[in-house]
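Re: [help] complex structure
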Amino acid sequence: QVQLEQSGPEVKKPGASVKVSCKASGYTFTAYYLHWVRQAPGQGLEWLGRINPNSGGTYNAQGFFGRVLMTRDTSLTTAYLELSGLKSDDTAVYYCARDLNSDNSALEDWGQGTLVSVSS
Amino acid sequence: DIHMTQSPSSLSAFVGDRVTITCRASQTISHFLNWYQQKPGKAPRLLIYAATNLQSGVPSRFSGSGSGTDFSLTISGLQPEDFATYFCQQSYRVPVTFGPGTKVDVK
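Output below.
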């Protein structure tokens, strides 16, 4: 079965960077886009961007002013989200999620989430 | 960006009730509308994709309808496990965008 296993919680200071990993298994890693979505405490879902694990090409949501970097390692079937210049309002649970299929970015499978806390 | 709205923002219902949540897109998105259920402390779960298609394993009491800009999610016969927050999401164009959510709780 498809599994997306994310790295553990992080506590960071403002201005620091964080790198969250998403280890995929149970399917062909390069066949489906992976997305990153975050959810601040008590808030809704915010899409950060997606990566094509085959090509490494990315599409980032605007508004992050170059702070978001998505990468992948196909040999490890793992995707990474790096967020730099952390601010307190970056405190959120960060999820990776896999596309349903190539025709529709419905998010079929989700990681368990990684809590990133930003505090001085 | 395509802006998504949902109504109501919250509702209270009894077990057994029929519940409908609506979602509107700021521009036409054809049928590229998906619905998710989220329970506290858990990742969202895909319920409906492409407006009307029931995701595998999702009970048939969930159904979706609509196209263009106006969509709805209906739960026919609310069960105790259905009390949760529901989000719509458009996948017509990047950036993908979500609605603000509808919280369904016990009356």
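The interface with chain B takes residues 35, 44-47, 49-50, 59, 61-62, 95, 97, 100, 104-108, 110-113 of chain A (CB under 8 Å).
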